[in-house]
Amino acid sequence: EMLAAPFLWQVPRLRRHPEVMQAELFSTTMHGAALLYNLLVAQRCEEEGLTRFDGKVDEYVMALEWWARRMHEHQILERWDLSEFWSVVQSNGFTPYPRTRDFVDGWVRGILSEGPRHVAENDALRKLVERQEQRKGKQSRLLNERMLPAWSGASAADQLTFRWGVVRQIAADIFEGLMADA
Question: If you count Cβ atoms within 10 Å of the first and of the last residue's Cβ in the chain, which end, N or C, has fewer?
């Protein structure tokens, strides 16, 4: 069961841990920000006439619609207490950068106020993602059109797994070794 689960929160024995529950809520919620970022880059590529990225705008609009349905179906925002999340983070010895915390808080507030369905058109959320990206300066694809051709078409667009794939592989290797010795 553990080796087949694509996310650690899909393993029933792990799901009950507060850190795992918070990881699921964070990963699912912030996935929308990653998709919106990629949509913004795709739109910028379209404006610059980079035809090798044709279809990417529609792909990310559809991905954001899928994400919004998932947020609604799994009642992510209804289940997530952001202050509890930050408490869990800090109780595990991590202190997020203030800008990171502001970004996460702003993203969640924006979704709570408008709902996840119209993220692609939400000016406040678009600006939030743009401001976060502007921290990269000249490396920002949204500020520097020379960076656009280097875009792969998907920049950190997958949902966060917290290196679960690596853990699964290590567990599989251990299991295989134990079975070989048996």
Answer: C
30 neighbors 107 (Cβ within 8 angstroms): yes
Mean pLDDT of the chain: 92
> Which residue from 60, 67, 21 is spatially nearest to 41, judged by alpha carbons?
60
Q: Are 2 and 168 in contact (CB under 8 A)?
A: yes
pLDDT digits (tens, 9 = 90+) for 3-26: 788 999 999 988 889 999 999 999
CA 24 to chain centre: 10
Sign of the alpha-carbon dihedral angle for 156, 60, 121, 146: positive
pLDDT at 117 over 80: yes
Alpha-carbon dihedral sign for residues 6, 10, 14, 18: positive
Q: What is the largest CA-CA distance in the chain?
A: 61
The 10 Å CB-count burial string (b at 16+, else e) for 1-14 is ebeeeebbbebeeb
